[in-house]
Design a protein that fits this description.
Layout (H helix, E strand, L loop, with lengths): L3 H8 L26 E11 L2 E7 L4 E5 L6 H17 L18 E5 L5 E5 L3 E9 L2 E9 L7 E3 L8 H5 L7 E5 L37 H21 L5 H4 L4 H12 L3 E7 L4 E6 L5 E2 L5 H20 L7 H4 L2 E5 L8 H14 L3 E7 L2 H4 L7 E4 L5 E2 L9 H8 L7 H15 L3 H15 L3 H20 L1
Parallel strand pairs: 3-14, 3-15, 9-13, 13-14
Antiparallel strand pairs: 1-2, 1-6, 4-5, 6-7, 7-8, 10-11, 11-12, 15-16
Helix pairs in contact: 6-7, 6-9, 12-13, 12-14, 13-14
């Protein structure tokens, strides 16, 4: 008898995998349980946030939003959240969110009155138009507000009820939806007791709890890991003699921990340590580390990946060990590079796409390292005037090339650049002594960087040519 059979029955995934079938890797083609899709294809904004008028077309897998400060990256992400909120509003037990209800989301302008005073006025109409796919069906919808005193008007074309049959069907896959803002801290709640974690059974709609500011629900992740750890202890007491590695390979905590292991090299995932009453990260080569003692970068990437996977497990328990592979949805992340070590910045996009291959990601970043890991077709380069373009190239560029070609910024300190330009000018004018003096001064500041060595070689060559002419 397969020792996993009883455990699958406990976790409600009895028919997830037949005996002898090896779980596919994240890179394999998904096996659809039900073709449930949530995808945003197009967004048009008129007087929403800082956009006078702007239209955006999105990739179905990964969208990296890039631009200088003040170009509207966060505003675009918030508008995306407002657009995908409509179908989620139709799911029971989820707090409704209507982006046009808040006047702060309407564009403002400064106007001068006849008596010379200046005041800030809202500009109307403010409108959001969206186009996307839900359950293999095309939808288009809009939300509009025409004045400060008016209420928001929306045309949803049946969008609010689009997910209702999915919720009612035990076999359908609900899409994950989550927004991780730039103020995510992932702070633990020390007042949560283990017994509180098992107060109530999980519901599918719990996967949408706090989705509009997902990192604020750290208590939800903390209680979930605690509850699953306690379930494991109960399972061990029932199935003495079964190796724990086999017993827990396909339980929900094991599924989440496989995603965490992708994000944190050397880790084996999260657990609740009963000895210390703490959430910990388990490592393959050292003692566990308390979650609160991780670096900001480790804690951020671990919690981000674990929370997405946890929400998928809540939404689609019937999907079994393939839930992270098969669950579709939309995940929005502001400042993807926040607190990440440069080496992790290079890996993060690949980790997310491998761990959650059917999710449509929207992420903003300033990091040249991340940009250099993403094809140009997956990058939206925002301009201050609201226009967006794809860079000519991005994938494979080094950081200096990304800064200059994609972000339009100098890859070098301006003072150093000006000194190098001046030294070249002096050499072109055959003012070798002056060039040497400027080069010596620059070398004292920056050391023997390649450009300094090259210029010194040019000066030596010019001196040798001058000596031979004599």
């Amino acid at each position: 008898m397969n020792p996993l059979k009883p455990l699958r029955r406990i976790f409600g995934v009895e028919n997830a995998l037949p005996d002898g079938v090896v779980e596919p890797s994240a890179g394999d083609d998904p096996v659809p349980l039900a073709q449930t899709v949530l995808r945003l294809d197009r967004l048009e904004l008129t007087n929403v946030f800082g956009f006078e008028h702007a239209a955006f077309h999105f990739d179905g897998s990964f969208n990296l939003i890039v631009g200088v400060n003040g170009c509207g990256k966060t505003s675009l992400l918030q508008a995306i959240v407002g657009a995908v909120a409509l179908p989620v509003n139709g799911v029971s037990a989820v707090r409704n969110y209507w982006i046009m209800d808040n006047l702060r989301n309407v564009r403002s302008t400064v106007r001068e009155t006849k008596d010379g005073r200046v005041r800030l006025e809202k500009i109307f109409p403010a409108r959001l138009d969206a186009k996307g796919v839900i359950n293999q069906k095309d939808y288009d919808w809009f939300m509009e507000r025409t004045s400060e005193s008016s209420t928001a008007v929306e045309r949803t074309n049946g969008l609010l009820s689009a997910l209702e049959p999915v919720v009612r069907s035990a076999e359908s896959l609900l899409p994950v939806v989550a927004f991780y803002s730039s103020d995510r801290r992932w702070n633990l709640n020390d007042r949560i007791r283990p017994e509180e974690a098992v107060d109530e059974p999980d519901k599918r709609s719990d996967g949408y709890t706090g989705w509009m500011n997902a990192s604020s629900d750290m208590a939800g992740l903390q209680k979930w890991v605690t509850a699953k750890s306690l379930e494991r202890l109960e399972s061990v007491s029932r199935f003495v003699g079964v190796q724990s590695s086999e017993l827990f390979k396909d339980d929900e905590l094991g599924i989440v921990n496989r995603a965490v292991a992708l994000a944190l090299p050397g880790s084996m995932g999260l657990s609740f340590d009963m000895r210390f009453r703490k959430l910990v990260v388990i490592w393959s080569d050292r003692e566990p580390t308390a979650f609160e003692d991780l670096s900001d970068g480790q804690r951020g990437v671990c919690a981000l990946v674990a929370d997405i996977a946890r929400r998928m497990c809540l939404l689609n328990p019937q999907a079994g060990p393939n839930v992270t592979r098969d669950t579709p949805g939309v995940v929005v992340i502001d400042e993807l590079d926040m607190h990440l070590h440069p080496a992790w910045q290079r890996r993060i996009v690949g980790v997310l796409r491998k761990a959650f291959p059917r999710v449509q990601f929207f992420a903003a970043t300033h990091s040249p390292l991340i940009i250099g890991e993403v094809p140009s077709s997956n990058i939206l380069l925002l301009r201050r005037d609201g226009r967006s373009t794809h860079p000519e190239r991005s994938y494979g560029l080094d950081s200096n090339e990304v800064l200059e070609e994609v972000m339009g910024s100098s890859s070098r300190n301006d003072a150093v650049t000006n000194s190098l330009v001046e030294i070249h000018r002096l050499l072109d004018s055959e003012m070798v002594a002056d060039a040497q003096s400027r080069l010596d001064s620059l070398k004292a500041d920056v050391g023997e960087i390649p450009e300094v060595i090259q210029l010194q070689s040019e000066i030596e060559s010019l001196r040798m040519l001058g000596d031979s002419d004599e």
